[in-house]
Structure formats: C-alpha cells, structure tokens
Amino acid sequence: PLEMTNSYSNTPNVPNNQAIPLFNRAMEIDRSPNDSGLELHHHFKFNMGGGNGLSNPRDIAVFCQMMLNQGSYNNVQILSPATVSRMIEPQFQWCNSSNHLSRQEKPDFVSQGLGWMIRNKSHYRGSDLMSPKAFFHGGAYGMRAIVDPEYDLTTIFSTSAYHDASYGNNRNCSSYPWLTHHHQMQQIFANMTYSAIMK
What we know:
Number of helices: 4
Number of strands: 8
Shape: globular
Number of domains: 1
Helix content: 10-25%
Largest sheet: 4 strands, antiparallel
Strand content: 5-15%
CATH class: Alpha Beta
Order of helices and strands: EEHEEHHEEEEH
Distance between the termini: 35 Å
C-alpha cells in the first residue's frame, strides 16, 4: 500500500543501476574486500528488524509521512493511531535514569521507542531545534530520518560514505564533540532545515 518499490530486506534483488557507490576517506569509490556488490559491510549486518535494509530517500520519506499521518498514507490506514503512539513512547526507563543522564559524555541513545529514537531533555542527536515530540532513526553510511509532528515535518539526510571516511584527522574537533562527523553533518543539515521553516 505504501508503494515503497525501492526498499529491500537484504540485498540480492536490488537493481545495481540504482545503487550509489560508497566512498572512502580519500573520496574514492571504496573497493573493500569485505564487500561484494551491494552487500552491507560486515559491521553493519545485524540479526534484528532494523538491520540489513536498503532503501532510497523517497521510500523513507513515504514511511515517515505515514508515521506523521498517524499511520495513514494515501487514504489507506497502514497502522492504527494507537500503534503509532505506542511506537514513539519511551520503552526503556533505564535510559532516563539519573545516573545515565548525569554522565559527562552524551549517551548515544538515551531514549528509545519501538523502532525509533525519541527526543527528550538531554538528547539532541538529530537536531538541536527538534520539538519534544520529534522522533528519528539513522542508518548505515550516513542516513538520518526525522519526523516532527509539531512542525508537520519530515527530513531525510543521506550520504554514501563509510563512517571512518568522514572522521578526518581529528574527530573530536567539533561543536558536538560526542558525535562522529557523520552525525555532525546530519545535525547541521537538520538545523538548517528547521531554521528555514521556523518563525
């Protein structure tokens, strides 16, 4: 019903002519011996629902819009509003414990729903300007999708580089020292998007 025709679980059926190559730190097409065609790099292969997926920005935007519409897309109810609400509620209370929030370094994920990371008072990964209602998800090689019901907004950011390729010589030289350079780029892009629409 979502017509996400460019989304795949695992990679055997992905059309090669639609794939963008991955780049290394020298901005050359990566020829890693750990990869074969469109296979995900071994350190991104997880036995979980959120792993081994390939998609494109349009399909990801459709899924995000469905979430923004309380589970509906093109007048078809895919998920019930109750299911959508449950997916974006905090599911792991330990993430919000005083011990976890008092750490000097920013925790990677301090609040998670079902399949989504959730914005809360101590977690700004995604955008500094996200509303408290925002939720988001990342992906291998630099993807970040944000859904923000308060602004009726979805943003999709995608790069095509290994995480190591974006570190540069000093990965800690940043306004966001707890983030990798991939995450910094995602953060800056999202901040620019929010700044363009906020009054």
